[in-house]
Amino acid sequence: MPAQSTDKPIDAIRELERGRFRAMVDGDGEVLDALLADNASYVHTNGKRESKRQFIDAITAGRRRYRQIEIQSQDLMPGGRDTWIVHGRALIEMESKNGALLFPIAYTAVHLHVDGNYRLLAMQATRVALD
């Protein structure tokens, strides 16, 4: 479900991030549909850019399977009156044809406040070295 406006936007954005990652692991297209803006753009660690629909379809069809996503850090900053930017790190575990893939990412996500809810507008991830 969309993150509701609260007196503390940071709490709403953190909940949206947790909910988005949980829905990606669960393959829950309905929740992802609610959390992403209609014109959302998702850029993966391999540089592939997907629209909201392409991103959700790949997950719900099983072409992309996340086993686990562990948020390691998040820094949130306002980007304007209705915009928040998240700079985060996460550990991703995915299924692949050759077994499990485990890799850390650094990511930037942009969340927009629309009609009383925050929604993910853009996300870009980069693989980083294991610490």
UniProtKB/TrEMBL annotation:
Residues 13-120 form the DUF4440 domain. Signal peptide: none annotated. This is DUF4440 domain-containing protein. The lineage of its organism: Bacteria, Pseudomonadati, Pseudomonadota, Betaproteobacteria, Burkholderiales.
